[in-house]
Amino acid sequence: MKKCFSILAAVLVTLAAVSCGGDRSQILKVYNWSDYIDESAIPEFEQWYEARTGEKITVVYQTFDINETMLSKIEKGHEDYDVVCPSDYIIERMLNNGLLLPLDFASIPDSLNYIANNKSPYIQGIFRDINPDIDANDYSVAYMWGTTGLIYNPKYVTDEEVSSWGVIANPKFKDQILIKDAPRDVYGPVLIYLKQKELQEGSVTLQELMYDSSDASIAAVETFLKGAKDNVLGWEADFGKDQMTKERGVISLNWSGDAVWAIEEAADVDVELRYVVPEEGSTVWFDGWVIPKYAKNVKAATWFINFMCRPDIAIRNMDETGYVSANGAWEVVASQIDEDLDPIDLTYFFGPDADSVRVDPVLYPDKAVIDRCALEHDWGQDTDKLLAMWSRVKGDNASGFTYIILIVAVLAVILVAWLSARRKRSRRRRR
């Protein structure tokens, strides 16, 4: 119903703009993931913007479920969205293809500039790694971030077993492992696992592996995954975490944000789940705000992104979505402190004063974990090779049981979506 109202609002505002000769100075078009914001912040922004600039603004808020859908509308349809929130590899692709406008936060008064005042050194460094020739910090602002790892049930799986990605191929877990249907997020960790010798010898770095789309590496990952196919309970888009809470799977290759949800939901039914980034290393991901090339209201878009970085708004968005804000303000991490937890080192993210912060390590990994993680990258034209490999791997495992699981999953997703709407803990598909 909420989506229908959003679409209706978009149509009405667009018709209003046309009737006024296409004037978009008072309209801001935002395109974001489903269930990925505290929507009460939108009218609050409209009021804040008018109070600070003296100009009225109406936000047309629309959502998408797949990165490529959003990208196609901008790249091929030249849609005039003012603000969008793509994932890391799509930001890289848009940057490389000249589809982003530079961000001019100098136009915002210093006292209101939440971007400049709340940057995380870690996120800044990651953005500089996106393109060695263009600093992505000048074109995008991180919104949420996390790691890729393993959710597991300690009743059936030991900490030692999940300390390595090799557990995916352990015959002990036949038909008990859920794999995220996200080739990019599976390929990276598996390749890191397979290249441990080279990494330890120093002949290759983690970051270099994230660019490795060679036929040899793709074949090696494919062989490993096919060798583990008997263990795969299902390739899942969004039902893996729910299956884990019901103990229908014992291991799930998943994102840290979904792990938080699964751990909390499982605790409500007396099921213990844990999350780990295996010792070999893994990948980090993020989503970020950008202004596309065909935007019509750059000023309001700039102020909107800035508003999303205000610490209290960042905290509200975290609470609403369950994901972790990329905001480097101390107020944000302070809102997550739990004195019952062990202290961890977050100096990489929040600076030297954050050497022993008591927060959930699933949300904010310890520096020792982050040191063995790397950012995924866009493969450009080689992406087709990755998708072809993924199709072959899944095709070899399309058993009747998998189809039954998929049917059950669809029904489960419908039920979970309804419950999640009530609990305000919905999730979205990143890839």
Features:
8-stranded mixed beta sheet; single chain; 3-stranded parallel beta sheet; 44% helix; globular; alpha/beta; D-Maltodextrin-Binding Protein, domain 2; 19 helices; 431 residues; disordered N terminus; disordered C terminus
Report on the architecture of this protein.
- The chain has 19 helices and eleven strands.
- It is of the alpha/beta class.
- The protein folds into two domains: 24-145 and 289-331, D-Maltodextrin-Binding Protein, domain 2, CATH 3.40.190.10; 147-284 and 363-423, D-Maltodextrin-Binding Protein, domain 2.
- The strands form two sheets. Strands 4, 5, 6, 7, 8, 9, 10 and 11 form an eight-stranded mixed β-sheet that branches. Strands 2-1-3 form a three-stranded parallel β-sheet.
- Helix 2 links the parallel strand 1 and strand 2.
- Helix 7 packs across helix 10 (215-227) and helix 10 (215-227) runs parallel beside helix 18 (383-395).
- The radius of gyration is 22 Å and the shape is globular.
- The two termini are 24 Å apart.
- Residues 1-21, 397-403 and 421-431 have low confidence and may be disordered.
